[in-house]
C-alpha cells in the first residue's frame, strides 16, 4: 500500500518538483496551495505525511499556524517543514511545535527522500509501540502442527494479499484476532495501521462516534475534531471484533460506508474518503442472527467475501503441548517467574480436557500453574497438580487409584486393561488420528488397527475435523 503525502506550498513549480521526486519513488501525492486548501485536504483524508512550506502567500495561516492546526487534529501524522527563508530560530520553533524535521530550500532530492523515509518509519514505530502498550504483545501467528491449523494457515496465505474482506468465525478464545493479525501482516497493507473495534464491549451509544469520528465544533479548542477508527485505519486494516454485537442502526450505516469507501463525521458535512480493508470476527451463527432480525443480510454478504473458521482447541488437541510450552516461555520472559516443565502425563491429561475457553483458557491455566503449582522449579508439573476440572478429564491410565484394580487381576487381563486405557489416552491426545498415534506408540498402522479391534476400542481414523476452512 503506497504512502500518501500531502504537499503544501504556494509555488506551483515547487509542488510539481516535489511531486515528481516522490512519485518516482512510488509515493502517492496530493497538493494544496494555502492554509484553507491544506486543512480541507487533510480533513478529507488523513495523509501518511505532510510536506509543509513555512511562508505561504495569500494564505490565512502561515506554515507554523497550519502545523499547529494539524497537530491538534492528528498528532500522529508527521510533518516536514520546508522554507527558502528559514532561520535557526524558525527551525527550532517548528520542531518544538511538533514538526518531524526542517529542510531549507533549495534541497537535494536524496535528502528529501531520506527524511521522508525516516519520518514514515518513525510514525510506524510510534503506531506499533502504542498498539503494543494497549495490547500487551499481540500474537501474530497461529501456532500448531495439526491439520486444522495447517488448513487455516494455508487459507490465510491465499487471502491475505488479495485485499478481500474476510469474516472469521469460531468460538471465543480460539484465536480469531490472531488470524486477523496474520492476514494484515501478510497483506500489502502490512506497513499501515491495524486497528481493532470491539463491538461486544463498546457502549451502543458510542458506536458511531468510534467508527466515524466527530467534526470540530464552532470552537475547535473546546471541541476539536476527533477521527474515528475508519479514518485512522486509512491505508491499513480495521478489525470489527464480534460484529454480531453491532447495533442494527449502525449496521446500516457501515454498509453504506463500505459500499462508498467514505462517510461523514458526526456533526460534519464533508465526505471523508478512505481506503480501508475491513476484517470481522464473530462467535455466533450469523445466519441465525439474520433469521432473528438481529443482523443485516446485506452487511453479512459485504463482510463475508471470504469466510474462514478458526477451530476450537478440542478439535486440535495435538497442538496443546506446543501451545503450552510456548505460553510457559512467554510467561517466564515477561514476568520473570522460574520456568517449569510439564510432564508427559500432565500434557496427556490436558489434551483430554475439552477446553471450553479454548486457547485463552490454556494460556490462563499456564499462568496459574507457574504461580500456584506446588514443588520447586526443577520439578515437572504432574497431573495431580492440575486444577480439578482439568484433572478430572484425564484418561483413566493416568489416575493413580487405578492401580488397586489392576492388582486384583490376572496378568493377561491387567495387561489388556492397561493397553486399552493407554491407547484410548493416546488416541484422545492425537485427536483420533491413527497414523500419528501409531507413530508415537511405535507400532505399524495396520498393527495398531488390529490391536484396537482386539481390545474393543472404537477409533475413527481422521486427520482433521471437517469444515475448518470455508463457509461459516
Automatic annotation (TrEMBL):
Residues 142-371 form the Sigma-54 factor interaction domain. The modification 4-aspartylphosphate is found at residue 53. InterPro entries: AAA+_ATPase, AAA_lid_NorR, CheY-like_superfamily, Homeodomain-like_sf, HTH_Fis, P-loop_NTPase, Sig_transdc_resp-reg_receiver, Sigma_54_int. Residues 4-120 form the Response regulatory domain. The keyword Methyltransferase does not apply. Signal peptide: none annotated. SUPFAM superfamilies: CheY-like (SSF52172), Homeodomain-like (SSF46689), P-loop containing nucleoside triphosphate hydrolases (SSF52540). Keywords: Activator, ATP-binding, DNA-binding, Nucleotide-binding, Phosphoprotein, Transcription, Transcription regulation, Two-component regulatory system. Pfam families: AAA_lid_14, HTH_8, Response_reg, Sigma54_activat. This is Sigma-54-dependent Fis family transcriptional regulator. It comes from Roseomonas fluvialis.
